[in-house]
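Before the break, one more example. Copy the sequence into your notebook; we will annotate it together after we see the structure.
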Amino acid sequence: KEIKEREEKKAKEKEKKKKKKEAKKARDAQRKMQKWQTQAQVNQQKTMASRATNPGPSRNDDIVSSVKKEIKAKTTFFSTLSVWLPDKHFGFSTIDLPEGKQSVFVHGNNFSKRDQRFLSTGSLIEFQLTWDEPHPRPKAIKARLV
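Here is what the structure looks like once it is written out:
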């Protein structure tokens, strides 16, 4: 009878130790997760603070502002179609600006019906620019084959 009671007591103690171990593992895992989340928040705050204090103009911002100046000046550009997709009826041309090269969207509807038939990659075109708001990029208008 005493032996049986000792064995039961040992089994209960063993079960208690096992539960304590599992609880400790769960607490440790939760602490690690909280530490990781806190570190991630700190990193995000540092990044946001860095951007707020030093946004710094990017090369792309310079090109966009240059394109917008050209739009206001109503400059006429001459360029070749670097890409023309006849089945989609649009393409792209590249213009040179002081800040660098800029790709320009060119749609076939901006050409006369006669010009539309002869458009192909490498065609020399003349156009003015506008800013395409839905897709933040420059777009050719009043275009014609040269």
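Strands lie at 76-85, 90-97, 100-107, 124-132, 137-145. The chain is about 50% helix and 30% strand. Try to locate both features in your own notes.
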